[in-house]
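Minimal example, chain plus cytidine-5'-monophosphate.
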Amino acid sequence: MKKRKLRLRDRLVVVIDVDSKGRLLKILSRISGKVSTVKLGLEMIYSAGIGVVDITKRSGYDVMLDAKIMDIPNTAGRASSAIAKLKPSIITIHALGGRRMIEDSQRALEEQSKKELSIKPLLFGVTVLTSLDDRDLEEMGFSGGYIGTVKKLAGIALDAGADGIICSPGEAGILRKEYGEDFFIATPGIRLEEDSPGDQKRFSTPEKAIQSGSDILIAGRSITGKEDMAGAVDFILGRIGNALGKENMIW
Ligand code: C5P
């Protein structure tokens, strides 16, 4: 994969975890086009239906569809074909589903996108949810803690052809060192100093995420939990810009 260059506005994905079209539209208008992409996930889709992807695209945003695919390869591949028809720019898949599932899903995305004459959505592998820590993993029978587990899952996902990896900011540097630069790293678990962690256990500031090698920051409650959402987006984009430095910034 040749990693495409990102503009500043591509580097912050705003998470919209709400339960109705009305709330979605309100947030889309309140962040007023300051980022290129928003993330729609399970709550949004199951509450308001898959039509929200199209509604969001028609409002001028690219969609990161947090589908978190995980199933047998045949089912995952067929789901990926169906998703490609919706033309999101990024979709997510659980690396825990294994190599073959990721390969088959990537192939399905390529084939369907060719048929649609559209750009293939990037496929990002979710490693270990940022709400889990070493104790949770141990309880589930994983040895090696979250760092070892993230490293292993990311290796499998990249080997199987994933375009990017989702992990917490704390693991981004380790993945860069281990697997190089030619893949995207997207990090949820973004919090400002004054924010409550909520259910996130592995979180960090925007600066630390960028400095450790993250390309794309995925932030929800740090933005949508604020009265002035556009101001919060500007503030985080400013901090991302400072952390990148002028020489690495594309407007
Ligand atoms: O509100 P907050 O910034 O914590 O939102 C984080 C978002 O990122 C949630 O929508 C969650 O589903 C998603 N996510 C995560 N950890 C992962 C993958 C996705 O928190 N490893």
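The longest strand covers residues 62-69. The mean pLDDT is 96.
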